[in-house]
Amino acid sequence: MKRQQSPARDTGYFAGGSRSFIWMIAGLCLGALALYMFDPISGRRRRSLVKDKGRSLGKEAMESVEGQYEDIKNRAQGAFEEAKESVSEVVQNAGPHVKDETLVKRVRSKIGRHVTDPNSIEVEAHDGNVVLNGKILQKEIDPLIESVRKVTGVSNIENHLEVSESNSASSMHLQ
Questions:
Q1: What's phi and psi for 159, nearest 5 deg?
Q2: C-alpha 25, offset from chain centre
Q3: In the chain, domain spans
Q4: Is the dihedral of CA 64, 70, 76, 78 positive or negative?
Q5: Neighbours of 123 (CB within 10 A)
Q6: Count of C-beta atoms within a 10 Å radius of residue 113
Q7: In 10 A of CB 151, how many CB atoms?
Q8: Count of other CB atoms within 10 angstroms of residue 108
Q9: What gap in Å lies between CA 137 and CA 23, rounded to an integer?
Q10: In whole angstroms, what is the distance from residue 106 CA to residue 146 CA?
Q11: What's the topology of domain 100-174?
Q12: Which conformational region is residue 12 in: left (phi greater than 0), alpha (psi within -120 to 50 degrees), or beta?
């Protein structure tokens, strides 16, 4: 059996079903919006408000995108620098073999920059292992060890330095 439709639905606004009703409501809303925006008395002010709101939203969106861009850029630079530093450490630690005499000369040059009396310190090197002997002032030991650690070819430091509180470096050398 076929189902019969009521005669009221076949004519007028409901002839196309609910879809045409939705289009009718959409048309009414667009018409009301047009009247609202193009009203001769207040329409100019309303259009200006809509334009200003649009510009403001666009500016906020651009600032948000720029902020996200800066954040991503900074994170990428940080990751790159960390990777570069890691590779540098690996290369430095597993770098080319340095002759013992060359390593002693490099360490001696660093000692001269950080110690009051560089002649009071003896340096020995064996396959990247550096042995430091002698007397040094308390305030000079940390900078010295840190600078020797950065010398290319140094893999280990044996610290046999005697720490002195005295400020007279020349008296340390003479003893």
A1: -100, 105
A2: 53
A3: 100-174
A4: negative
A5: 19
A6: 10
A7: 18
A8: 15
A9: 91
A10: 14
A11: Histidine-containing Protein; Chain: A; (3.30.1340)
A12: left
Instruction: For CA atoms 111, 117, 123, 129, give the dihedral sign.
Output: negative
pLDDT in tens, 34-46: 988 888 888 889 8
Q: For residue 55, what is the DSSP state?
A: H
17: left (phi over 0), alpha (psi -120 to 50) or beta: left
Dihedral pair phi/psi, residue 125, rounded to 5°:
-135, 140
Structure tokens at 145: 């060890």
Q: Which whole-number Å values give the CA distances from 38 to 24, 46, 47, 50, 126, in the listed order?
A: 21, 9, 8, 12, 90
Per-residue pLDDT band for 26 (boundaries 50, 70, 90) equals very high
Question: Helix-strand-coil percent breakdown of the chain, rounded to 5?
Answer: 65, 15, 25
27-77 pLDDT, tens digit each = 999 999 998 888 888 888 989 999 999 999 999 999 999 989 988 988 888
